[in-house]
Amino acid sequence: MTLYTVTSEIFTENKNSYIKCKNDNVISSFIFKYPSYMIKPECLNGLTRDNDDDINIDRQQEGKLLIEHHISTELQYVGLQVWRGALLLADYILSNPDLFRDKVVLELGAGVGLTSIVASFLAKEVICTDIDVKGILKLIHRNFMRNKAYIKSKVDIKGLDFLNLKWPTFYKKIIDEPAIILAADVIYDETVTKGFVQTLTELLNSNVQKVVYITLEKRYVFTTANMETTAPMYEEFLDLVKVKQFNWHVEYIKIDFPQYFKYNRLEQMVLIKIKNKLSK
């Protein structure tokens, strides 16, 4: 049987500098512009400001995340790559510091950990989770260590499988604590998508207000059966979410917030906010 591999567009479109590791992974440099609140006062000398007294974006300082990842993988291991959704969600976090500052944040399907690392710039605690295959949890740990100069929060890296919701009591308590849940580009496979929605259902079945931020990219395919172009996984996700609308409040967030990372922010990209409706 032929095994098909996929490669993230991030690797080809940005031509990020990278070095090869001994384990056949690479370490890429992801450059980002500092939001004004991250620039230390002593670094402001020499920066120009506009009429609103904001620092001119073109003169902002830049930071660099070093992220270990795979270049290509089989479909079931795409979490070992970096995808646009992770960068879009990272941009949203940096654009809205007050939503994330001093919060406990849980990321589902964190992949190589880029979005969790950015959340740790602001959060009180970040619980970074993914299914423990192909050494991904150890890889996430290495990425946090590489970028420890930016980390401001407590960090907990844990295994979590969307297809196994039989969590021990102590474990359920840990992952039930966060008020904010993040997920980037986990909508790509029918089985995984169903498991992801079931996981959200478990987490949002709470008397505590929780907010979920989900980024994804509508990936269109042409079907000869219906002679039309569709985004099947996105539509599958929406169908599953519609069943939950009685208990969930779903909102689409415009993606016109500032862009700090370098990637193509396509119109097919989506940011969805979900809140659980608390019983009165």
Automatic annotation (TrEMBL):
Q: A single GO BP annotation from the record? A: methylation
List, alphabetically, the Pfam families matched: Methyltransf_16
Name the InterPro entries on file.
Methyltransf_16, METTL22, SAM-dependent_MTases_sf
Q: Which GO terms describe its molecular function?
A: protein methyltransferase activity
Question: Which SUPFAM superfamilies does the UniProt record give?
Answer: S-adenosyl-L-methionine-dependent methyltransferases (SSF53335)
TM region positions: none
Offer a single GO CC term for the protein: nucleus
**Keywords tagged on the record:** Methyltransferase, Transferase
The record's listing under CDD domains reads: AdoMet_MTases
- Protein's UniProt name: Methyltransferase-like protein 22
Gene encoding it? LOC100743722
